[in-house]
Amino acid sequence: MPGVMKTAMRTAVIAWLITAVYYFYQYMLRSAPGVMMPQLSEAFGLTAMGVASMAGLFYYGYSPFSLVAGVALDRLGPRKVVPIGAAAVGIGALMFATGNNELAGIGRLLQGAGGVFALVGAVYIATSNFPASRAATLIGATQMFGMAGGSAGQFLVGPAIGAGMPWHRFWMVMGVIGLVICVLLFVLLPAREQTAPVQDKDNWLKSAGHALAVVFRNPQSILCGMIAGLLFIPTTIFDMIWGVRYLQEAQGFDYATAVLRSASVPLGWIIGCPLLGAISDRMGRRKPVIVSAALVLLLCLAWILYGPADVLPPYTLGLVAGIASGAAMIPYTVIKEVNPPHLGGTATGVINFLNFTFSALLGPVSGWILAAIGGSAGMFSLEHYQTAFEPLLYGVALAIVLTLLLKETGPAVRPTASIVADIKA
């Protein structure tokens, strides 16, 4: 029996690890457009706002397919679902490399639709195969892989593009890598044992709809999604899309320095996600960690927009802001603790949907504001960026208030089982 348990644990670790590597890969593609905006503008014949809107199509695929991914994982298991997502990301990257506006737009949507299976799949594997007392730590470690990819998409890709690497070659190579990851996922992910008779299509859809309804009707689920989304936006919109341009145009840094400073935010996530998750598990509480980190993020964001750029040591603000932003992953643990255990995949899909719906809807707004106040020159001043991104401060402040309304689900306060018992599936 110990040998069987050891083998099962090793299999689970391998499955989680390869899915987390897939998450690293898709996050690298998510952030890469931010370091090649001039090249993409020239290739597609678009303004900076047009390129930002095309890059933002990622979230229009990512957000709705979060719901599909969650329900599919609960019903079919990772092996039948996650490799298909990786194939979609790879094909989407190849389409983006064509330089054709229509194909690139569809490709960006595919990257988002397929990419969502990485996070939802990795979280599903982690929370289904490891002790619940490690949930926040494992989910934080999963996001660590993602943000390592986000950092690589800036820290590694930026210098490569600056050194003359053609932008389309990068996307072609990444497309092939995506297809290779698809094969590895299919080979390494274990098949799930069939524990229930296969339902026909109508019953499957009814079951999926019921699962989504249970999670969406829980007010705590909505709070989790809003808090995560409001804490994510400073990274997904401000840093990953506009960060390099902001540092160049508003703060006067050269391209190489701007790329490195922008990359310090996802680097901070790499530290903050597992660290804050581990602290939360150690304390046995979720809310104090979210509130404390959100306050730090609020101060950092205010300094980035309104404070002097040459007072603090280089990279400090971005790194600390990234570490504090890691608290956005703790609601991913909470939503699983306030919903029935057998709906773990659906719960993760719902919070991912709510989270990145913020990015999908609000991402273009910043570009529109900049275009409206900056005119047609295409260059923006510090005041323009302050006007466009000041609402992010209010969003983080709102996340703090909403956290106060969240139920404390940490093991030190109330066992998960007793919380779930209150919910009727």
Which helices and strands occur, and which strands form pairs?
Layout: H1 2-31, H2 37-44, H3 48-76, H4 82-96, H5 101-129, H6 135-155, H7 157-162, H8 167-188, H9 201-216, H10 219-249, H11 255-283, H12 287-306, H13 316-325, H14 330-337, H15 344-374, H16 382-389, H17 391-404, H18 416-421
Notes on the protein architecture:
This protein is mainly alpha-helical and 425 residues long. The chain is 78% helix and 0% strand. It contains 18 helices and no strands. The protein has helices at 2-31, 37-44, 48-76, 82-96, 101-129, 135-155, 157-162, 167-188, 201-216, 219-249, 255-283, 287-306, 316-325, 330-337, 344-374, 382-389, 391-404, 416-421. The longest helix is centred in the middle third of the chain and has 31 residues, at 219-249. The protein is globular, with a radius of gyration of 21 Å. Residues 416-425 have low confidence and may be disordered.
Distance between the termini: 33 Å
Question: Averaged pLDDT, please?
Answer: 85
The coarse silhouette is globular
Estimated helix fraction: over 70%
The helix-and-strand class reads: mainly alpha
Secondary-structure element pattern, one letter each: HHHHHHHHHHHHHHHHHH
For the secondary structure, the number of strands is 0
- Contiguous low-pLDDT stretches (5 residues minimum) are 416-425
Count the DSSP helices. 18
Percent range for β-strand residues: under 5%
Q: Over all CA atoms, what is the radius of gyration?
A: 21 Å
